[in-house]
Amino acid sequence: MMAPKHAPRFLKIVEDSKKRVRETDVDTVKSRLDRGDKIVLVDVREDREYDADHLPGAVHLGKGVIERDIEEKYPDANVELILYCGGGFRSALAADNLQKMGYTNVTSMDGGIRDWRERSYPLEKGR
Fold first, then answer.
1. Alpha-carbon 82 to chain mean position
2. Which residues contact 1 (CB under 8 A, 6 or more apart)?
3. Residue 34: which domain range?
């Protein structure tokens, strides 16, 4: 599946965020999940995208509400959060904002669920 063509101003803010956030890739996340590492996977996509399919065990905090809801769900600013979206752009923006809020252990999964699907890694459906 081809990545969507994004508008130039959107790409500009994504690139700006990516200068400040740590990124990882799907293979690293998959091996960490297989090892049973204690990480919180956060799907920042829209509700309908999450319901269609998501990474195993991922919690859903859409990009529209993550800043509002993160502290109630994860009050510890040192909790390890790995954010992902469709391709790694929205997750970079969200990770940047969480860092501005004082979260110290946030990573964005570059390639997103698109790369995860391409490797035929397992997915869950529904809520």
1. 6
2. 114, 117
3. 11-118
